[in-house]
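Students often ask why we bother encoding 3D structure as a string. The short answer is that it lets us treat folding as translation between two languages. Here is a chain of 91 residues written in the first language.
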Amino acid sequence: MITEYKNLSIRFAICVDTDDPDLLTPRMVYQVLPDEDAAKSAYLRVIDNEGEDYLYPARYFVLVDFPQPVQQVLLRTSVPVMRSVDTEPST
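And here it is in the second language, the structure alphabet:
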């Protein structure tokens, strides 16, 4: 279940590493939810691929600042923002 946070700064992060590709996809944008206790322990609370908020190591992400119009689009998007692309040439 996603915890609702109102009137707090909206943050996003790009996944750069994962130990569970079913829950996090490298190069995908995730919404970060405020969690001061998690941050003190070097974790981020993000909404993962299952649509649940969960704690992940902060080292899995790079925080990014998007302009307000981009944030609004990301918040309205219910499908993954980006999926991994196979970079190997087809044969």
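Translate back mentally: The beta strands are 11-15, 29-33, 43-47, 53-57, 61-64. Keep this in mind for the problem set.
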